Amino acid sequence: MSDHIVGREHELAVIRQALDDTVAGAGGCHVILGAAGIGKTRLLRAAGDYAFEREIAVAAREAFRHDHTAPLVTLAGALRACSPPADEFAWLSNPDERDQGNYAKIDRLRDCLERYSSRRPLLIVIDDAHWMDELSALAVRELVPALASSPVRWLLAARTRQPDDADTPGWQTMEWLAQRSTSIPLGVLDDDATALLCEEMIGAKVDNTVVALAAGCGGNPLRIEKLLSALLSTDQIMVADRIATVVGEDLPSSFVATVREIMGSLSGDAQWLLRATSVLDRPFGIEAAARLMGREPGGLFAPIDEVTGSGMLVEDQEGLTFQHDLVHQAVRSTLSTPVAQHLHQEAANLAREQGRPTAEIAGHLLRSGPAGTGAAVAMLRDTAAEVAVTAPAAAADLMLQALHAVGPHDPARPAMVAEAVGLLASAARVSMAQELGEEALRAGLNPATRTTLQLGLAEASKHAGQNARAAEYADDGLSEPSVPPATQAQLQAVRAHATFYLDDYATADAAGAEAHRIGRVHEPGAAVFGLTARSLVAQAEGRLDDALTHATTATALADESGGAALHRHPRIWLANALTSLDRFDEAERALRRGRREAEGLGTGWARPLLHYYSAALLTMRGRLDEAVAEADAGVTIAEQLTALQLTVPLLGTLARLAVLRGDLEQARGCLDRMSSLIATGITAPPEDVEWAQASLLIADGSADEAFGLIEGVYDELPDRPTLIVLEPRSAARLVGLALHARDRARATAVADAATRLAERNPRSHAMAGAAAHAIGVLRRDLRKLCEAVAAFRKANRPLALASALEDAAILGRDREDQATVRGWYDEALRLVTAAGAHGARQQLEAGLGAWRGVTPGPLPIADAPCLPLLSQAERSVALLVAKGMTNSVAARRLHLSPHTVDSHLRKIFMKLDIHSRVELASVVARECPGNPEVT
């Protein structure tokens, strides 16, 4: 193990146990957080040493400040340095291979990591992870949970975040991981550990003079070590009779003073070496040091030996670097302003010659004095434009840096603000975008810049689910004179989607039509987006054929136009329209193709939406376990992307599914998370929010409270039959709930709305079934209930069919042929059991079980050839993974997304009480002789 790991026995034990678990096949992530100089790096090195002892491959890298403008540089650098080397990661060194879409890179990385870890466990170490580049940060957020079932252990360290630290993707990811992984907080050393560290540093026992002086360092190991180094270098520590004591009166009073004390003990050349290279923010070679010092490289050998011997500089894979950022800052503070400006100018020239990122060059120019500011701002803006597609957060940071440099009255500032707002919107930093944008709007802008700014603000607000503000910004932008047609189309498309979620269907449809009219000539992507909004409006109003027409037109236009239009992914809404018309096989094909397109184009926002509509389709088909896996995967991705607008409906879907499956505690958890997001200003349709909440209340026996909660849904149903469209069996449930509340008027209104919906959509068996079911419950009309059964059977909607059969059995048990009624009950029971709707099954048994002569009891064990605790979908995944397939390969085999396979695998591990793929293979070998093929 590394030297001087003092006072960290518990933390080391946690890491060693995690690495032992990794050897056994389990994955996971540990986050180390602590103040600067507290010992994070040393702990990482100790972890690497132990990993080598356990024959775990190690991929390690430190993140640097300038990583943020180089997509994937942090994670790719770690994997390229993997020890032992791995062929799987060789493509990361090939510029042509790296030039693919961001999400395609992440998917490929995932596949490579799965394949490599199937042969050998892997530890991935990232120090100073708060400086990770944006794509690496996103990859870590996705890969940590995705590889939890593989022997890949993540160990990431970052210093404790301070209030004035920038909100970088690295910080966001570390905070996200800290909530979902095992955190290892590093505190200060206690008195005993401080004394022990002093003894190890000095090589002798210490008296109270040493301990008292070290105590002034506040238990920070780096500060203690530097203090002792300074005292040793100035002969202020005396050892007599094997006891060390401090002598002299001129003792360092601060860390900076301590570092200067150490520097003062070095030669003049060594001191100049430290000071000259302190302007660099990355490891450097001997040639760079010589250039800054104005010396020949051959004359630096002795100074380099001297500074490395003092511990001020250390060697790593990329050259020489300061032992710690605190030491770096302390040395840099010794430079006078003229000297610092000269060195930064030379560093900028050197960086330019070495082909360093332009952001690094600009950073030096900004610190080189007034002469470099103009050039630096131009470089920052150019670089921001270059990296905006792959790293919008990094581009936004560059623009903010440029804005800070130009000052409030620079004539170029308004245009720069507009650019920055758009980038901040893309990076989901909505509050900052709004604050900066509002400031610029108040200051006055020319019309073109103002309109561009309002489009950026509208998109930022829409992304965050703040639809009211999005609509306001879009309206303001459209009110400007001489708005370019392409911008008009984009504003109208955003306005259409925003006002749809504000329940203003007339405005949404009109805006969508305008976006299509203008955009098909000037901006096809906006035209496609406008048409998808019109499809949503038509579906919400119950015009199902119109919904399909708009989605079909959008899809054809995107295929014809390509480019940005394809990135709108209209097949997602096409699948939604097909689902509402009971055309499930076509909808499934559309979603499958849409998923392939999203993966190929690397479009992040489309992924959670694909999972949302996949979950809806699977629910209609009565495949609840698969629907849960899709919705769960969607929530995971939406949270990773901070796509909060999409997280709310996905959580509502999970809550409704949990109620159907009888897991009310999980439903409560989903609704709590959803409510906390809504409290931030996110809006979502009542079908996703109030109906989910009411479903839980009904299952909890609080029908009156549920009715009170959704009175608004009842009142809007004549003009907004969306709930019946999305869930046909809800019509009868709404009628029953209103009758329970003795509100026959509202019950009648529901039946009338369902009837009109069926008349408007004569080709929809599901809508006919919804109307007949609602009327049957309202009038206690068994003939109508039998009509509903026949319609739902034609629509192939198992849960709706089971619900109609249940109501028919309840009504007919005292007045119909008992064999027929028992048949209805038995069929309903088979349907809900096969669907995994255990909550619906319990309700059915509680209502009719005694009459049928069945005593409610535990759920039956599935009649499966093996692994009876698993659903059919979970069993398929388990059998493939047990054969050695990676999640990615299993996903392709089963025509699922890898995220859905991840979700299935988490549930498999929980149900079987196992923690690794190795254990799963053992269980399958024991319980499934021959590992039957997946059907």
Automatic annotation (TrEMBL):
The protein, known as: AAA family ATPase
Ranges where the HTH luxR-type domain occurs: 863-928
Nucleotide-binding is among the record's keywords: yes
Keywords per UniProt: ATP-binding, Nucleotide-binding
Source superkingdom: Bacteria
